[in-house]
């Protein structure tokens, strides 16, 4: 029950949790670098349709949408490979200098965020969301929500939050 294969978006009906299916399902007790994506379901098409429906009218969807669709249509065998591709894409779009790689098994990881669950504490970041008029501001959504709604300004909002503003 971690966030390593899930993300939440805002839709016309409220928040929607999207999950990338993995071989072995919810009870899987496998090291992250061995978790395989289950392609028996057409989850990629379902996720893309949900994202298009949710963010098709967002101010920056036209700019980020095509690259996001290409990212979703990748077919890596392992979940870690998809996650690394997604993290690299997000950091590139946010213009952040972060290098991601698989941890060497012989080294002790400094911080393993993928194995943790996170308390959903409301963030102090506020921005205009596509369906805010229907549901109010929905906190704790995927970074995609911030990116689609704020575009290049998203980085500034994240930096201000980190600095405690």
Please give a structural write-up.
The chain has 165 residues and is mainly α. The chain is built from 6 helices and 2 strands; from the N terminus they run E-E-H-H-H-H-H-H. It has helices spanning 43-55, 61-72, 79-93, 132-135, 143-150, 153-162, and strands at residues 6-11, 14-19. A two-stranded antiparallel sheet has the order 1-2. Strand 1 (6-11) and strand 2 (14-19) form a beta hairpin. It is globular. 18% of the residues are buried. The model is unreliable at 105-118 (pLDDT under 50).
Residues in helices, as a percent range: 25-40%
Largest sheet descriptor: 2 strands, antiparallel
Number of strand segments:
2
Along the chain, the helix and strand elements come as: EEHHHHHH
Q: What structural category arises from helix and sheet content?
A: mainly alpha
Radius of gyration computed on alpha carbons: 16 Å
Shape: globular
Low-pLDDT windows of residues: 105-118
Beta content comes to 5-15%
- Largest sheet strand order: 1-2
Mean pLDDT: 85
N- to C-terminal separation?
Answer: 32 Å
Helix tally equals 6
Provide the number of structural domains.
Answer: 1
List keywords for this structure.
2 strands, 165 residues, globular, 38% helix, two-stranded antiparallel sheet, single chain, mainly alpha
């Amino acid at each position: 029950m971690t966030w390593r294969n899930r993300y939440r978006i805002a839709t016309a009906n409220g928040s929607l949790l999207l999950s990338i299916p993995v071989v072995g399902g919810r009870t899987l007790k496998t090291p992250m670098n061995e978790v395989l994506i289950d392609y028996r379901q057409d989850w990629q098409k379902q996720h893309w349709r949900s994202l298009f429906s949710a963010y098709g009218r967002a101010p920056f969807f036209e700019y980020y949408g095509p690259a996001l669709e290409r990212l979703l249509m990748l077919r890596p065998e392992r979940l870690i490979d998809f996650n690394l591709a997604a993290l690299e894409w997000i950091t590139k779009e946010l213009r952040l200098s972060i290098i991601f790689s698989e941890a060497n098994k012989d080294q002790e990881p400094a911080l393993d965020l993928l194995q943790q669950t996170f308390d959903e504490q409301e963030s102090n970041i506020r921005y205009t969301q596509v369906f805010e008029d229907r549901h109010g501001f929905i906190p704790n959504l995927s970074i995609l929500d911030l990116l689609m709604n704020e575009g290049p300004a998203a980085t500034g909002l994240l930096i201000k939050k980190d600095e405690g503003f």
